[in-house]
Structure formats: structure tokens, C-alpha cells
Specification:
2 copies of one chain form a homodimer.
Chain A lengths: L7 H17 L5 H7 L6 H14 L2 E2 L8 E2 L1 H11 L9 H9 L3 H16 L2 E5 L2 E2 L4 E8 L4 E8 L4 E7 L6 H15 L9 H11 L3 H15 L7 E4 L8 H4 L3 H11 L1 H13 L6 E5 L11 E11 L2 E10 L4 H15 L11
Antiparallel strand pairs in A: 1-2, 3-8, 3-11, 4-11, 5-6, 6-7, 9-10, 10-11
Helix pairs in contact in A: 1-4, 2-3, 5-6, 5-13, 6-13, 7-8, 8-9
The structure holds a DNA duplex.
DNA sequence: TGTTAGCACTCCACATCATCGAGTGCTAAT
DNA sequence: ATTAGCACTCGATGATGTGGAGTGCTAACA
């Protein structure tokens, strides 16, 4: 429906305005456009067209006698229609990421860092939430007389430990029984499938050691529960200083940075897409489209990745509205592809 | 040697200047002091004394016809001699910290947060480095045909996992042997004690499975190695915006924040004290005394804690030179005491 | 001899003012 | 439909001036 109200020439001019503004960050005037484009139109004509574009809400003037800057609507149009897909050589990153680390958490921190370095914006990456993940293996072992160690491994190859205090030593035979009990009953189950019935049955069979079972189950829930506090890795937040329109008022910048520090807030940006099963694409929030108030002067681009079956997280970039959408989305795509299914592949180098 | 050059009255005046400046952040003039103190001296007298203090290097003038502000030397004197020990009711924190979490890493993040909220400065807390820590327990288990899980527990109750790929399945009997082999040879050893001899012996006894042993040993080294990348938790970094003298130039602030983000840099601040065995006190770096260049306009206060035998980390606070040293040091002391030996105590609630 | 009152001086902070120029909208000519 | 021209707007920039807080110095005082 957008296209109806814009003719070819207006689109060209809008495109020129936005591109120019993305580069310079300054309001762009009619003369600039007249020279910039291959339209061969005088500044006066451009001015008329620009007045129209303003009336239509695609661009706006910060004040009379200044050039025009894109409005949110303008950016939206740009992202949806004007932007070209470039497929640049960011692919190296993939190699880099894979080779440089093994631990998932470190990968994610790396991803955030690389992305920040590459784009000059602030970035965030959420650790996977273990959505619909299944129990693969549970093991209890004696640590000493007072403590036992519980290790839980999921299909997604995520491992969690818990040290559980016990009132009295457990002999090896009992331990073996408990292990068999746990594994035979829980293996292959997703969190949702472990219901009260299963739990009751387990506890009954464990007899006097039912408290240990409770403890283990708590840990299982914690490992796989979706209400687990979401871990978010951020990087390059100080990049936001590079864009005067975000950092002029100091207060604004401070608020923005606080949002990044108080990571729980970012979660709302990010969990939103996680839930929608099918949506695996890339999301763009411009200005007020973002659910976070403090980011109304920014744009946010997010992508959802899926490390393995049911293990998902989000990568996001925050920058000024005039961010280089093409580059950012390219980067996100590449990284998303790198991360997708990373756990399914064998880990060897060759 | 400081005391020699300062008589009673000069000290009182210096004290007044510093305290006043700590409160207001503005250069303080002679008239203010004359009213502030119980010395009952006119501003003119104060002026003379202040001129002396300036000549001695304890205070300085930002420009002619402005009041005086403390120099680094002045702050140093204040911290060393003037400051009173207050013992306030920060003790609640201890309870709070302990009750609200069990996992060490979360405790530390909490500590950083609380400290930041309490002091209004930027804070950082390093995760423990497992200095002289010992192996307590190692266990290998079959995950599936291609992978085994190694779990390593140290005396400090830190647990680490690694998934190790194997070329062919290991039967249970072999696994048992490997477990016994590892535990009987490594238990109770510190990292430094696992030398080439031990390793060679282990590998020999493991026969065809020596590659697994190598892998496990790698993980052990990683768990306990002191060259492990140091984890640092920061909080309240945006607090630094509250102090104009740090954030006026925007560039300065940006640089400072970058330092906080690039956490590796902070390590130098923090590892310094870790090595000195006996030093368990509180360190104060004023301005250029800090090893980090970007912090030359700040003061840094650090404290080293010891969770348990040989497991140490550092808590630090970064703020403007005119920070409330008393409060900060109080807070650090309390927190340090809370953390000290936390792992030695039983974990039960009562 | 130490303290104080007084005074001239300095210099920053702040507000006022004028100027400049980029950019606009409108009108009239092409 | 396009363009040249022109008057107009308005922020950015820099010069100017004023007020006030604070100093150093000198001279008077206890």
C-alpha cells in the first residue's frame, strides 16, 4: 500500500535523502540531493518533492530552514523496500567463531564482541533458553560424607551441576540404585513431560532418599526451565557515544547505557520472538516500535538463532535510527547461519 | 614524615577543604572554610594558610580566583590520616547476599550490584582464581557411543564439565578403571603438583585410552590454571555519569566506560594484589597511582577476599577522586568479611 | 608576631547581541 | 512541469560585557 502514494521519482529522492543521512548524520538539503542523484533536477524541484514527502510523513525537518531527515516511517519504507541485499564477505566470522572457542557461553560473548567491532553499534546476545530440551543423562556421585554431586546433561549437550548436602553418607549400592532410578524414569523427557505423577512415582521408589530426588528435580527444572533468568551478553555499548543524536544530552546516553547494564530489561526485546515457533527471520524495530521506552531514539535489529533442537537465543544490535541497515542485517544473517545447528554438527576441526 | 610539615591548624583546614569538596564537588573558598570550621578564623587567615597548603602540594587551584581542590597528595593524606573509621550498619548486606543465592558467580554479580547501589560508584568483582586449589574428585561417564562426560570437582567445591569425543565406545569396565586411575593419581593434588612425571605415568597406565587422559588433564588445567581468563563482574558503571568532573568531555566518559567493558584491562588492577600472599587489606589508588591510564582522573579502592583455602578474588570500586572514602572502605570491609571463608562454612540456613 | 579588615585584581560563568549561511517556500519566468 | 530568483527563517558561532566569587597583598590592630 505504500507504493501507491509514492511515484518513481519521489522514491528516488527519498532513497537519496536516507542514504545521505545515513552517511553524514546531518539533515540533508535540496541542493545536496540535486547534485547527488542522476535525476538532473534542480534544487527547486527537489524542494517541491521534498515538501510532498514531508506531508506524507516520510521525512521531517528538525526546524525550519534545516534540511530533512528521515522519519520512522521513512526508515521503515527504506528497510522494507529500498534496501538492497548485499552479500559481503563476513563469512570469515563463522570460521573465526568456531575455531576460537568451544564453550557456548564464550562463543556468545565472542559473537557480541565481533558484531560490535564490525558494526560500531551496541550489541547483545542472549544465551540459549532451553526450550523443549530433553534430559539425556543424570548422574549422582559421592563427594564426601556430607555431599553428593548431581550432574545433568541434556540432549542439547548442556551440562549442569549441583552439590546436594545429605544428612548421612550414602553407600555405593544405594547410589547406583538412585542413578538407575533417575535415568530410567527421566531420560528422554522434556520438562513439560515431568509431571506430578512421574515425580510421585520417583519419590515413592526412592524411599528414604526422596529428598535427594527432590533436590535433583529442582536442578533439572532450573536447567531447563524457561523462566530461568536470561543471560545476556553485551558488547560495544560505548559505541553509542559515537552518535551525537543519542549522546548529546548526556542524560539520554546515561539512561540508554543503564538499560544495557540492567540486562533484565533487554530480555523483553528478545524473548518476544523466541516464543513464536515459526518466526526465525530478522526483526527490525525502528524508534517507538521497540518495546523498550528508553530506546525510542534508536533502532534495534534482532535475529533468532537455534543452536540445536529447541535451543534458541537471540542476537541483537542497537544503534541510532540512521544505522547502516544493510550491513547490520547482513552481519546478523551470517552469524545466525553460523550459529544455527552448531550443536548438531560434530565438533572436530576438519 | 607527612606530619612534620603540617601543624595542627593546617591539618584542620586541609580536612575541612577536603570534606567540603567531597560533598559539593566545587572548589572551596576561604570564606566557606572560615564559617565551616570551629576555628573561628577569618577568611583572610584561612587564605594565608591555604596558600601554604598549596605550596606544600596538598591542594591546588583550578585557576586563579577559584577556590581550592584537593590534590592527589591531599587525598592521600586524607585517606591515610584524617579519615575516621565509621562502622555503620552495612552488615545487613551479608545476610542478604548469603540468603539470596547459592551459586558463587551469582553471589559475585549480586555483590557488585549491591555495592554499586549502595555507593553510587562503579564497581567490579572478580571471580575467584583458583590459586593453589586441589583436585577433589574426577568422574568420567558414558554419554553415548561417541562422547564421554568428564566432571571435575575441586576442594573449593568448584565444578567443571567437559564433553570429550571418543572414536569408539568405551565399555563400562574400562570406564571404571579409568575413573579409579584418575582419582587415585590426582586426588589431593594442586595444579603445580601435577608434573610431567605424573602425566606420563597416567598415560602409560591408560594404554590405548591415553588420549582421553590428555583431554581430562587439559580440563583440569583449565579449571585450576591461574592464567585462566579472569571473569569480572561490573555494575553501576553508568554511575560515573553522575560526576561531572569525569563525564564533562564525553570523550573522557566514553573512554572510561570502554575500559569497563573491555574487562581484560581491569584485570591488571586486580591481579596485582592477588599475588602478594599476606596482603589481605584494602588498597587505595588515587589518580595516577592506578595502573590503568584511563583512570587517572579517578580513585580506585580494592579489597581482596578469600572464599576458602586458596580461592581468592577482588572487589573494587571506581569513582571520582572526591569519593566518599569512608563509606566506600566501610562497605568493602563488610563485604570482604562476608565473603571471607564463605565456602568453609556449612551451607545450611540455620 | 599572628590576625584581620579592606581593596584592587583576576577570571570564569552567563547572558546578550550581531552576524553568517544553509536551507526553505513562494512567485514568476521559461 | 521545471527552474531561477528572492526574501525569509533560524540555528550555529563568535564577540562583548557584566557580575560575582575568590584571591593576594597591604596596612592596621591586639
Amino acid at each position: 500500500m505504500d507504493e501507491i502514494e509514492l511515484d518513481e521519482r519521489k522514491i528516488k529522492i527519498l532513497d537519496a535523502v536516507i542514504r545521505n543521512y545515513l552517511e553524514t548524520g546531518e539533515p540533508v538539503g535540496s541542493r545536496t540531493i540535486s547534485k547527488y542523484t542522476d535525476l538532473n533536477l534542480s534544487s527547486a524541484t527537489i524542494r517541491n518533492e521534498m515538501a510532498d514527502l514531508e506531508e506524507l510523513g516520510y521525512i521531517l525537518q528538525p526546524h525550519t530552514s534545516a534540511g530533512r531527515i528521515p522519519s520512522d516511517k521513512g526508515y521503515r519504507f527504506y528497510v522494507d523496500h529500498l534496501m538492497q541485499e548485499k552479500n559481503r564477505e563476513v563469512a570469515d566470522m563463522k570460521q573465526f567463531v568456531i575455531e576460537h572457542t568451544e564453550k557456548v557461553e564464550q562463543v556468545l560473548q565472542q559473537v557480541a564482541k565481533i558484531l560490535a567491532a564490525n558494526t560500531n553499534y551496541a550489541t547483545m546476545v542472549t544465551a540459549p533458553s532451553y526450550h523443549r530440551n530433553k534430559v539425556k543423562f543424570i548422574q549422582l556421585s559421592n563427594l564426601d560424607e556430607e555431599q553428593i554431586l548431581a550432574v545433568i546433561v541434556t540432549e542439547g549437550k548442556l551440562v549442569k551441576n549441583k552439590i546436594i548436602p545429605v544428612s548421612e553418607p550414602i553407600d555405593n549400592e544405594t547410589m547406583l540404585k538412585l542413578n538407575i532410578l533417575l535415568n530410567s524414569n527421566l531420560n528422554g523427557l522434556a520438562l513439560e513431560e515431568i509431571n506430578l505423577g512421574t515425580i510421585a512415582k520417583l519419590k515413592e521408589q526412592a524411599g528414604i532418599h526422596s529428598d535427594i530426588i527432590s533436590n535433583v528435580l529442582d536442578t533439572v527444572a532450573e536447567t531447563m526451565g524457561q523462566d530461568e533468568d536470561i543471560r545476556i551478553y553485551t558488547s560495544g555499548t560505548t559505541n553509542l557515544f559515537k552518535y551525537p543524536e543519542l549522546s548529546d544530552s548526556t542524560e539520554k546516553a546515561s539512561e540508554l547505557l543503564s538499560t544495557f547494564e540492567e540486562k533484565q530489561q533487554l530480555a523483553s526485546l528478545v524473548t518476544e520472538n523466541l516464543l513464536e515457533e515459526e518466526n526465525t527471520g530478522i526483526q527490525v524495530y525502528i524508534g517507538n516500535e521497540s518495546p523498550i521506552q528508553t530506546m525510542k531514539d534508536c533502532s534495534v535489529v534482532t535475529a533468532t538463532y537455534e543452536l540445536g533442537e529447541g535451543i534458541r537465543g537471540t542476537i541483537g544490535i542497537v544503534g541510532p535510527k540512521r544505522m547502516d541497515y544493510e550491513k547490520v542485517m547482513d552481519n546478523l544473517k551470517v552469524l545466525k547461519n553460523s550459529l544455527d545447528g552448531i550443536l548438531d554438527k560434530p565438533k572436530g576441526q576438519t
